[in-house]
Every structure is written in C-alpha cells, then in structure tokens.
Amino acid sequence: MWGIGYVNGANYNNSVLMDGYAAFAASQKVVAMAKDTKLSDTERSLVRALEYRYTYPLIDIVANPTEGKEQLDMLSAKYEQALEREYKQSNGNTDVAYFYIEAMMCLRPWKLWEPEPKTGKIDPKTIKIVRLLEEHLKKSPDHPGLCHMYIHCMELSPTPKKALSVADKLLQGEGLVPASGHLLHMASHIDMWVGNYQRAVDGNIRAFEADQKYVRATGQTKGVYLAYRMHSLHFLVWAAMFDGQFKTALGYAREIEKQLTAKALGGGMAVYLEAFTMTSLMVLIRFGMWKKILQEPIPKDCEIFAGKVAVTHYARGMAYAALGKVEAAEKEQKLFHQAMMDPLCASRILHNNVLVDPVGTVGILNVARPLLGGEIAYRKGEYKRSFELLREAVKRDDSLPYDEPWGWMQPARHALGALLLEQKHFKEAKSVFEEDLKKWPKNLWSLRGLMDCEAGLGNTEIAEKLKVDFTAVSKRLDVELNAACFCANRISRKQSCCPSKKSRKEGKNTLKKS
Predict the structure, then answer these.
(1) What single-letter DSSP state applies at residue 220?
(2) Residues 492, 495, 500, CA angle at the centre, nearest 5°?
(3) Given this model, what pLDDT does residue 223 score?
(4) CB of 416 within 8 A of CB of 390?
C-alpha cells in the first residue's frame, strides 16, 4: 500500500502527480494499517513521511495551473521536511537517506545547478545533496537508488566525470540490476557528457533488450513504461549519431516508428510521445541522406502526427537546399512554417522541451526555422544572411532547456562551422568547433571540422595531431565523412543541374581531406 502511495506521486522526471487521489487514499490507508502492523524502523519512518505528501481536496492543475502548482510545491516541501526529520532520527539510515535526497532533488528538478538569480550561487541544497549522496555511496556503493540519483545530480554539474565510477557500476558485468532497462540506460546520462559515445550506444542497446524481455513476459506496452522505453531508444539513436553509426542510428529510429503507431499515440498520448517519431528524419539529415529524405512519406493523419508533418517538410527543405534546388527548398520552407503554426504542434512535449514555442524562440522547431533559412540563403549565395541565421540557430539551440537527449539532436554549430569553413572563414569556424567540443567532448564531427580549420590556417602540425584524434574516435563511422556537416558539399544552385558522379553518391560531402 505504501508503494501505491509513493509511485503515484511526483518524481524527478514528472513534477505532477500520476494519480493524486489514489496516492492520497493509499497514504491514508497505510498510516492506519501501520498502527496495528509490525514494521521496521525504516518502514515506519517512510510511512510517517508519506502522510505529508498529499492532501484532500487536490486542486486540478490542468484547470488551475497556478494554484495547482503552488499546492504541489507546498506539499513537496512538507514531504521533504518530514523526510529530513525522519533521516535525522534514523541515525543516517541509507534507505531513508535515499528518499530524503530524492525529495530534495524533486524541489528543483533539472535545475539543481542553476545559480540563484540574486546571489549567482548554487542552491545550498544542491551541495547538501551531493555530500549526502557521496557519503552514503561510500557505505552502500551498490544501492540502486543512490546510483540513479547521483547520476541525475551530476549530469548537470560542472563535473559529470565524478559520476563515471557509478556509471561503470550500473553496467559492470550483467549490470547492477540486469532486468532494469532504465538503470542500464542511466550510465549514458554521464557517458554523453564525457564523450563516451560508443558506450552510450551499447548501454542503451542493453536497456532496450532488457525492456523487450519485460514486454514479452508481461505484455505491458502502454503508459509511462512505453515513454521510458522510447526514451532509451531515442537516447541510443542520439549517441549513435554522435558516434557516426548511421546504420545503428537509423535501425533503432525505425524501431521507434514501429512501436509508436497511430493507435499507440491515441488517447492523448501523442502530446507526450509523437515527437519521438521524428527521430528517423533527424538521422537522415545528420548523415546527409538527401534522396532518402525525399522518399519519406508525409504523414496523412495531421491530428496524431502534427509534429512529424512539420519536421518532414523541414527535412525536405534541407534536402532540396543541400541538393541546390532552391525553389523546391523554399516551397518546403513555407509548408514547414505553416505546419509549425498548427496549435497541435505547440501542444507536443519532448521531455523538458516543447516542440514549438508559438510566442518565443525556446522550442525545438524554433531552432529548425533559422537553420533551414540559413541553408537556403547559403545556396542562393547570400552568405552574410546565411551566417546570421545560422548564428541565431546556435543561440536558440544553446537556449533550449537542459535535456538528454538534447532537444535539437544535431548541434547547430556543426552546420555553421562547416559552411563557414567551406567559405574559408577559418578563424570563426575554428572558434565554432572549439566551442562545440567544450559541450560535446571528443565528438568526431567537430574534430573533423577543427582539423580542416587548422589545415586551412596553415597549422599543419596541429592539424596532424587532430587527425590522430579524429581517426581514434571515428573507428565505427560507417559513412565517408569529409566535413562537420553533410550540408557542406560544395553544391551551389548553378552546379545542382549536373553534379559530378562522385557528389551524386548518397550521403557524401566532397571537401578534400587534409
């Protein structure tokens, strides 16, 4: 009964109640049951704390979002305070510590490392969370909950490497919890920030396989579990894109499409899951598969696949632009803008991001808009305008709320840097790639671009060292790569009528290797 009350509450990934009335009823029932039930001290502590987590009546957060959020924030604070008291009385019990830490983290989900506006300092609770996690992990290094929360805490921190040993533990041997797809997946939340792209791919393949076993055993294919399974697949594809594994990325992106049918997205689930169905198009853009993009069907069900309709037109616009077919690209650009304005697009969510911000610029497809505009302007020879738009895309990309996978799956800097480099703006392109490598260390795309910049600047020795680095991280690359973005292919509008045999090959850019 305690478990029913606990799991129906908010959590680090979902700040609203799963089922508030079920949670309240369960919490009241377990408190009553506890009076006549023999419990351990730990169990009794957790039962007492749970009583503070819910109330009756609950304000409908959909009908009254402001008042509803205020009530939930108040309840979350009371629950955290109750657990603090229980933790102090437990003489440092590790299990009570876990629930206390989680409750503190849920007060500021995904914002633990954001400086306070007035002081510019990190919230003291964050420092306390790190201290308690590290203190209890020393005593209980195999505690799944502590490992889980430590990775969530440190992934946003300035030092994600500190959590590498915990990430290692989750994947060691068969895994700390072999049957938990989500815990096998969690290591990649650190791996991506330290450049371990291959392990992020492998860990999420293991997560997918563990989840598939559970699905076969239980038949559970709906609800929250479906969302978590799609998250692991989405993450797998994102990691494979960074690692240059086209076949792997596209294969698992197609698996997402296979599972997220119109039926699976019915009943309001499209709001939360439809954005996953766009992943294949992002893979095809990443690897320059322009002709394949033009063969992709445009969804006919605009109510279920409103977002994918928009992204399909965006992808087609990018493909036509890369092929030098400006008029066709501009036609798709207009269709993309129209589709973006569909109110259903604005209703779509992908983790911490909205698909479209209709009044501002902080939405996933708000990044796409200047990117496509910049690509088209580039093919028209309007280079100044092109670079202005691409710089705006970078700004919007950086402004997206923290998320993993990042809201925009292919860093906008790759297109800006590659096209600056193609026009021999070596210094600015170099700066763009260096900045990208700070965010995404050891990524082969920016290493390739930086190597070419140094060669263009005449820094042969540095370029050769970068070539060694590029070669080391591109061992699994299964396409020919000669630039940081396949949009840098030296195709202009004039050339597009009769490309050379070499440049016709799908997915190939034709910058010379240094």
Answers:
(1) -
(2) 120
(3) 86
(4) yes
> What pLDDT, in 10s, does the model give residues 367-388?
999 999 999 999 999 999 999 9
**Vertex 447: Cα angle to 444 and 450 (nearest 5):** 155
Distance CA 492, CA 5 (A): 62
Label residue 235 exposed, middle or buried (CB < 10 Å: 0-12, 13-18, 19+). Answer: buried
Q: What are the backbone dihedrals phi and psi of residue 339, each rounded to the nearest 5 degrees, phi first?
A: -65, -35
**Nearest alpha-carbon partner for 225 in 247, 250, 207, 205:** 207
Question: Any idea what DSSP says for residue 289?
Answer: -
Contact 491, 498 (CB under 8 A): no
Name the DSSP letter for residue 170: H
Annotate 431-455 with three-state secondary structure.
Answer: HHHHHHHHHCCCCHHHHHHHHHHHH
Strand-pairing partners, residue 11, are: 14
CA angle 189–195–196, rounded 5-degree value: 70
Range scoring the smallest mean pLDDT among 47-61, 150-164, 272-286, 403-417: 47-61
Name residue 353's amino acid. N
For residue 58, the Cα-to-chain-centroid distance in whole angstroms is 32
Q: Where are the alpha helices (DSSP H) in 90-155?
A: 94-105, 124-139, 144-155
Q: What is the pLDDT of residue 492?
A: 54
Tens digit of pLDDT for each residue in 248-300? 999 999 999 999 999 999 999 999 999 999 999 999 999 999 999 999 999 99
* CA 482 to each of CA 27, 123, 219: distance values in angstroms, whole numbers, following the listed order: 60, 45, 45
- Tokens 């997915």 sit at which residue? 507
- CA-nearest of 9, 33, 183 to 99 is 9
| Amino acid identity at 428 | E
Q: Tell me if 220 sits within 8 A of 192, measured CB to CB.
A: no
Least confident range from 60-74, 342-356, 420-434, 475-489: namely 60-74
| Helices marked H in 244-303 | 246-259, 270-273, 279-286, 290-295
Backbone angles phi, psi at 14, to 5 degrees: -145, 105
Alpha helix ranges (H) inside 274-410: 279-286, 290-295, 306-322, 326-340, 343-347, 364-379, 383-399
Summarize pLDDT for 150-170 with one digit per residue, the tens: 999 999 999 999 999 999 999
Is residue 237 within 8 Å of 279, Cβ to Cβ? yes
What string of DSSP letters covers 415-428? HHHHHHHHTT-HHH
DSSP assignment letter at 11: B
Structure tokens given for 383? 């280079």
Rounded Cα distance, 402 and 404, in Å:
7
For 301: left if phi > 0, alpha if psi spans -120 to 50, otherwise beta; the answer is: beta
How distant, in Å, are the alpha carbons of 95, 116, 408 from that of 111? 24, 10, 19
Percentage of the chain modeled with pLDDT above 70 = 95
Judge whether 46 and 71 are in contact, CB under 8 Å.
no
